[in-house]
Design goal:
Elements lengths: L1 H14 L2 H13 L1 H14 L1 H7 L2 H18 L7 H18 L4 H20 L4 H44 L4 H25 L13 H8 L1 H4 L4 H23 L5 H29 L18 H11 L8 E8 L2 H8 L1 H18 L5 E6 L2 E7 L3 H16 L2 E3 L5 E3 L2 E7 L6 H17 L5 E3 L4
Parallel strand pairs: 6-7
Antiparallel strand pairs: 1-3, 1-6, 2-3, 4-5
Pfam family, one: DosC_2nd
Enzyme class: transferase
EC number: 2.7.7.65
């Protein structure tokens, strides 16, 4: 879709005259205050949006970002179609992440188009210029809406899958037990197909694998546990072959022909064995990571971080909310550690740092392996002062570590930490961006230090 949308955008811009583009651009600038007031009134007038956005400062920020987006969208010096697509796609993803209600994306675009068309109708332009400008405005916003809605729906679906996976994690989902349960379900269906064949001799209808306990699990739950796992598609293809080809072939076999029955049942058993092999390999690959723990450090995996962050932001909407802090930690000179002492020692350093963090924070806090040598800590019910205090304690404990070497020597390890306290953000990515900027400044400032993130 990106290439098609980019081509449509480029074509629309190229076919629109500079004069027409300027007419549309002037309306935004000439009626800037009116546009801001109308958009703010739209946000305040929709109960779902008003509840989501909350504070007046957020309303102002949303309105300002909207106006900035509008100016970029109608700018005569338009960007390329590829950049246009990327920007609209990012907006849709942000809306999904924030939790915008489904109607918000299309309704806002519809209201903007009507506002534009009304002002165009009142403009002092020729009939042809009016038609050209209306055509441009409708095409412009319809393309933007198409991209944003697609991105929004994709983001909503992704968030829903992650939230369900997180729910299963919290309920103590045991992948080892789940694997054995599904293997048993496959075996039970395989043993039952011949029994069903003999019991239903007068009828040609045999049970399908898709309707079995295993088939239902595969269709409704497997994609939650094993998102975007290619082998799942192979398993589904095998199930389709069993249901659409092999079981019907068994149904056509004569009840008294043992040779044909054995041959048909044998082909089904071969496909079931292939499914079991693929199923086992999928579970083996995920049994550590999908349990919610990083196998090396035993910290939470990054996969569940969005669910935790969105939940913490939601909790801040109550009057007695105490805030929370995000600490982003980066082990100093980790590449040098690996290059000098080897990856085995590097892994030991990672485990030691992870243990120092978990021993310092409360059990109610969250510690994630964020990536490589980075770790993310979410301190719940924590203000900025407390966040800095805990971060300094973590930094100090890490600095005390003494990592043993194979030759009997030891070396010290340090970490740089960026601290970002919750400042009313609706999108957790903004908090993470501030924490990331702070840890960068800590490293630039000499490493082995704690730096507080700016507010924006």
């Amino acid at each position: 879709m990106p290439e098609r949308i980019a081509r449509e955008w480029n074509s629309l811009v190229e076919q629109t005259s500079t004069e027409t583009h300027q007419i549309v651009y002037s309306i935004v600038h000439d009626y800037e205050d009116e546009l801001k007031q109308r958009y703010r009134a739209y946000l305040e007038g929709d109960p779902d949006l008003a509840s989501l956005i909350g504070e007046s400062t957020n309303l102002t920020a949303f309105t300002d970002r909207f106006l900035e987006w509008m100016k970029k969208l109608v700018d005569p010096n338009a960007t390329s179609g590829e950049i246009f697509f990327s920007e609209q796609d990012s907006l849709g993803d942000t809306m999904a992440r924030i939790g915008f209600p489904p109607h918000a994306v299309s309704r806002s675009i519809r209201k903007i188009k009507l506002w534009f068309l009304r002002h165009l109708a009142e403009a002092d332009v020729s009939r042809q210029q009016l038609v050209d400008a209306m055509t441009f405005v409708i095409g412009l916003f319809d393309i933007a809406l198409e991209v944003r809605e697609a991105s929004y729906q994709k983001g909503v679906a992704s968030n829903a899958r992650v939230n369900e996976a997180y729910r299963l994690h919290l309920l103590g989902q045991n992948l080892g037990m789940e694997r054995e349960r599904q293997r048993a379900a496959l075996m039970e269906w395989g043993h039952g197909i011949l029994a069903a064949f003999y019991q239903n001799a007068a009828s040609s209808e045999l049970p399908r694998l898709w309707k079995s306990e295993f088939g239902l699990w595969l269709n409704h739950k497997a994609h939650i546990l094993f998102e975007r796992q290619p082998k799942l598609e192979l398993i589904k293809q095998l199930v389709n072959r069993i249901d659409n080809e092999l079981v019907p072939a068994l149904e056509r076999v004569s009840f008294g022909d043992r040779s044909q029955i054995s041959d048909a049942a044998g082909r089904i058993e071969e496909e079931l064995s292939a499914i079991k092999f693929l199923l086992n390999s999928i579970f083996e690959a995920h049994i550590e990571v999908e349990s919610g723990r990083d196998p090396l450090t035993q910290l939470l995996t990054r996969r569940f971080m969005p669910s935790v962050m969105m939940r913490e932001i939601q909790l801040q909407k109550v009057s007695a909310a105490a805030g929370f802090c995000v600490l982003l930690l980066d082990i100093d000179h980790f590449k040098t550690i690996n290059d000098t002492h080897g990856h085995k020692v590097g892994d030991l350093a990672l485990r030691s740092v992870a243990a120092a963090i978990t021993e310092t924070v409360r059990q109610t806090d969250f510690v994630f392996r964020y990536g490589g040598e980075e770790m993310l800590i979410v301190l719940v019910e924590c203000d900025e002062a407390m966040g800095l205090q805990v971060a300094e304690k973590i930094r100090s404990e890490i600095a005390k570590l003494s990592i043993p070497l194979a030759d009997g020597g030891k070396f010290a390890v340090t970490a740089s930490i960026g601290v970002a306290a919750f400042k009313g953000e609706l999108d957790y990515e903004r908090i993470l961006a501030r924490a990331d900027k702070a840890v960068y400044e800590a490293k630039e400032g000499g490493r082995n230090r704690v730096t507080l993130a700016p507010e924006s």
